[in-house]
Design a protein that fits this description.
By secondary structure, the chain is of the alpha+beta class. It has four helices and four strands, in the order βααβββαα.
Amino acid sequence: KTLSMDMRAKDPGWLKLKLESLAKAAGDEPFDMAFPGEAREQVIPRLLETAIGLESGDEIGEELQFEDHWLLIRGRWLIWTDAQPVLLFSATDVTARRQTEALHREQDARLQATARLVTVGEIASSIAHELNQPLAAIASYVLGSIRRLRAGGADPQAIAGALEQASEQAERAG
């Protein structure tokens, strides 16, 4: 949705009157662009002040939020077909684009949070493996030693070797 109006004089009073009529376009028109009073008092004078200082071909533009919608307001001096300078203002409703950008930022934040959770999960899994592997080896060495002792005739050197291996794995885990 875009509404535009040309303004053919560099007279600030005339430009203000024309821009205010642009701002009041509503009702039967396909585009409803009623600025709140705050906009008329702050935005319009600022745009006019900037526009009056422009040279032909220069452009100003500003995105403004009015309650629940966003407008891109642009102004540009042109030389019209009758060789007269014309200040052309247009107001484009950019609410849908702004909403899409906000949704994209929210989804990006969720994606980053999910990526961080996945990373934490991978780290936790790696830590668990680094602890479980030596603990399983310790259990295996100790169980093997117990079986040899119960079976009788165990070689003390073999049992000592298994217990040393268990001790090394305990140090690795700790």
